[in-house]
Specification:
Nuclear Transport Factor 2, Chain: A; globular; 157 residues; 5-stranded antiparallel β-sheet; 5 helices; 32% strand; alpha+beta
Length: 157
């Protein structure tokens, strides 16, 4: 069972316990967007293109990359490299109607994807700016993103 599936199972158990005790509330849009980003990170760590693309809008467009091109880039990247470790920092979310913007830093390294890697390969940090839209299904999906390497801008700057 992958880490993502275990995390989801624990989340469902938590929701079931909260609902059974009468303290369940509908998550806010900000909480739902945090979950989308966490799911994308988990999919990237697992190397699962489907888990990542499930949260990407068919209308995705960033520079000259659209939805099919992004899918192809992810397939190529996940096949070419081994497991990765992704450690996202705090995620700032701003929701305006049916659109949202999320901003966060993440440390990314190739390796076994475990903290036991002493010297990961190709480690870098990225600042990510992610635009999302609420689609017909009331699901938040990524419509575009921009990433900037820390080596070009410095962490947190």
């Amino acid at each position: 069972m992958t880490r993502r599936r275990i995390t989801r199972l624990l989340g469902f158990v938590g929701v079931a316990l909260a609902a059974s005790t009468g303290c369940w509330r509908k998550p806010t849009d900000e909480e739902r967007i945090h979950r989308v980003i966490q799911d994308i990170v988990a999919g990237a760590v697992d190397g699962d293109v489907g888990d990542v693309m499930a949260h990407v809008s068919k209308k995705y467009q960033a520079d000259s990359v659209d939805y099919p091109a992004l899918h192809g880039l992810l397939v190529e990247a996940f096949l070419r490299r081994g497991p990765i470790l992704v450690v996202p920092g705090p995620i700032a979310v701003k929701v305006v109607g049916d659109t949202a913007h999320a901003s966060f830093d993440a440390a990314i390294a190739e390796g076994s994807g475990r903290w036991t890697d002493i010297l990961p390969v190709n480690a870098d940090g990225w600042h990510l700016e992610v635009d999302l839209a609420r689609e017909d299904t009331d699901e938040w999906r990524v419509t575009s993103h921009v990433r900037t390497s820390w080596t070009k801008r410095g962490p947190g700057g």
